[in-house]
Amino acid sequence: MNTDTTLLERTKDKRPLLEGLSADARRTSRPSILMCAPEHYDIEYEINPWMHEENPVIPNLAAAQWSDLRGIYMQRLGWDVRLVEPVAGLPDMVFTANGGFVLGDKVMLPHFRHPDRQGETARFEAWYKSAGYREIVMPKYDNEGEGDVLLWNDVLFAGYPWRSDRASHKELAEFFGLRVVSLQLIDARFYHLDTAFTVIDSSTVALYPKAFTEESIAAVRKLVPTVIEATDDDALAYGLNAMSDGGTIVMPSGAAHLAGEYRARGLSVIETSISEYQKAGGGVKCLTLVLHE
Ligand code: ARG
Predict the structure, then answer these.
(1) Which residue segments constitute the domains of the chain, with CATH numbers given?
(2) Which helix (DSSP H) or strand (DSSP E) does residue 259 occupy?
(3) Which amino acids bring their CB within 6 angstroms of ligand 1?
(4) Residue 2 confidence (pLDDT) above 60
(5) What is the pLDDT of residue 28?
(6) 42: confidence class by pLDDT, cuts 50, 70, 90
(7) Distance between first and last Cα of the chain
(8) Residues 6+ apart with CB under 8 A from 208
(9) What is the per-residue pLDDT for 200?
(10) Which of 53, 117, 150, 192 is the pocket-test mutation for ligand 1 (most atoms within 8 Å of CB)?
């Protein structure tokens, strides 16, 4: 049966046209994202519980995993992937999620907590300028960009206190003119919001309850109709460090329960190995900055 016939029959029997389409076809958006090649990526310091200098990166494997992820975004999903030049001596620059928070014409640059990463800010700033962003600000308080700031509809969920100061949330609210809901992280292994929280679509998020205070979880539940809970195993596999376009979730492999929850809801799931990045406390989302329009 060709497509025309299918459409015709659907019209005839008045079933909604979208019914029966794959999750891919239901996708709500094709994000533009920023990535940075892992040319200089390694474990050269220890600023979170995952990083151990005696457990270095295998460069070829890291390169292959990064290329696989980029290929998933570009070839399989048709997303627009832009690149910022990697810099020697800035091994964590590969984690572009920490390169700021971008919405429309506006950019809030990252104010990194640790001196090891502070050199990245000027590099990201140069990229935003060359890409034509007009309103670029540096927050007064520590804020590690999309690692700790996730857009859900017209709300910003913002994590603290490991890497971003709660005081930076007020700066976010004022600069972007959006409501900010502060979420307190309580487990050092899940030090950025994006390690324990995924925005799935306009009515759904996923989170690892043990990484948050009860008040924070209650604040999420008050707003979001569907909250999917990750298990310990999901969280330890960095399963929440994922990207969703509303129809497809790209996530680290190894979070079987979470992947099953998504599939049961009719979402399409692409799992990819990020073992070399987990050595630095990173995963799919950390390697991806969304350039929100
Ligand atoms: N090694 C990096 C750090 O500790 C990893 C950053 C992960 N990024 C993220 N968005 N969670 O800063």
Answers:
(1) 10-292 (3.75.10.10)
(2) helix 256-264
(3) 47-48, 51, 92, 95, 97-98, 117, 147, 192, 194-195, 280-282, 286
(4) no
(5) 53
(6) very high
(7) 38
(8) 190, 196, 197, 229, 230, 234, 235, 240
(9) 98
(10) 192
DSSP E strand boundaries for 120-240: 135-137, 149-152, 155-160, 179-184, 197-201, 204-207, 226-229
Q: Note the pLDDT of residue 29.
A: 73
85: left (phi over 0), alpha (psi -120 to 50) or beta: beta
User: Residues 171, 141: contact at Cβ < 8 Å?
Assistant: yes
**Residue of 36, 69, 95 with the most ligand 1 atoms within 8 Å of its CB, for mutation:** 95
Tell me the pairing of strands 101-103 and 179-184: unpaired
For the CA of 241, the nearest atom of ligand 1: 11
Handedness of CA 207, 210, 216, 221 (dihedral sign): positive
Tallying the residues shown for the chain, one arrives at 293
**Averaged pLDDT for residues 34-50:** 98
